[in-house]
Write a structure and sequence with these properties.
about 230 residues; two-stranded antiparallel ribbon; 12 strands; 2-C-methyl-D-erythritol 4-phosphate cytidylyltransferase; EC 2.7.7.60; transferase; 2-C-methyl-D-erythritol 4-phosphate cytidylyltransferase activity; IspD
Length: about 230
C-alpha cells in the first residue's frame, strides 16, 4: 500500500456520537453522563484520545445537553445530534472543519487505549480509505431459528475463524465518510457498514479488550471495577 501524500499531514478529527439515551443501562441519566469513578463516561472517553494525534474533537449530544457537555469538556467542540446515530455522525462531520481524516468513536468505550487510535490513523495515512479496530471472536457461535415451546433451535455452528468483533474508533478519509453518509435517510449502528455498501474496502487493525463497549449494567460494573482498580 502506497502512502497517500495528501493525507501525510492531514488534520485529524475525532467525532464522538453521544446523543443516545442508553436505556438498556438502566441509569437515570443518558449513558454518556453516567459517573464512573468520579468522572462521566464522556469525560473519560475524551481523556483517552492521545494528544499526539493533534486531533480536533467533536462531541455530539442531545440538544438539551449541549450546555452541560460544554461545561464538562475543555477544548472540545460540542454540537447537537439528531434522532438517529447517523444523523449525529453527520452533525459531527459538519462540525469537523477541513480535517482530512475522520475518526468516529463510541462514547461508551471510555477505556480504549491510545495505541488503537494511533494505529487506525497510521493505516489511513498509509493509503487505506476505511480502517477499524477489531478482535477475534472467542465464543462459539450458533445460527438459530424459532423452535417449539418458545425455544430456539440451532441450525448450524458458525465458523468463528473468519469472524471479528469490531470496535471503535473507526477511521475514514473524509471523502469516504462523506460518500457513505450522502443519503440523509441512512440509518446504521456502524459507519464501516455504510462505507461497505459504497463498495469501499474496509481494513482491520488489532483492537483491544479494554475498548469494550458499555451497554448493560454488567458492563458498567466491570468498567467501574477496572477504574477503581487503577
Amino acid at each position: 500500500m502506497t502512502p497517500t501524500p495528501e493525507l501525510s499531514g492531514a488534520e485529524v478529527c475525532v467525532i464522538i456520537p453521544a446523543a443516545g439515551s442508553g436505556t438498556r443501562l438502566g441509569e437515570p441519566v443518558p449513558k454518556a453522563f453516567v459517573d464512573v469513578g468520579g468522572r462521566t463516561i464522556l469525560e473519560r472517553c475524551v481523556d483517552n484520545i492521545p494528544a499526539s494525534l493533534g486531533a480536533t474533537v467533536v462531541v455530539v449530544v442531545p440538544a438539551d445537553l449541549v450546555e452541560r457537555a460544554s461545561a464538562l469538556l475543555t477544548g472540545v467542540r460540542v454540537v447537537a445530534g439528531g434522532a438517529h446515530r447517523s444523523d449525529s455522525v453527520r452533525a459531527g462531520i459538519a462540525a469537523a472543519g477541513h480535517a482530512g481524516i475522520l475518526l468516529v468513536h463510541d462514547a461508551a468505550r471510555p477505556l480504549t487505549p491510545a495505541r488503537v487510535f494511533t494505529d487506525v490513523v497510521a493505516a489511513i495515512r498509509a493509503g487505506h480509505q476505511a480502517v477499524v479496530p477489531a478482535v477475534p471472536v472467542v465464543d462459539t457461535l450458533k445460527q438459530v431459528e424459532p423452535g417449539p415451546a418458545g425455544l430456539e433451535r440451532v441450525t448450524r455452528t458458525v465458523d468463528r475463524e473468519e469472524l471479528r468483533a469490531v470496535q471503535t474508533p473507526q477511521g475514514f478519509t473524509r471523502d469516504a465518510l462523506l460518500r457513505a453518509h450522502a443519503d440523509d435517510a441512512g440509518i446504521a449502528t456502524d459507519d464501516a457498514g455504510l462505507v461497505e455498501t459504497c463498495g469501499i474496502d474496509v481494513h482491520l487493525v488489532p483492537g483491544d479488550p479494554l475498548a469494550m463497549k458499555i451497554t448493560t449494567p454488567w458492563d458498567l460494573r466491570i468498567v467501574r471495577d477496572m477504574v477503581g482498580g487503577r
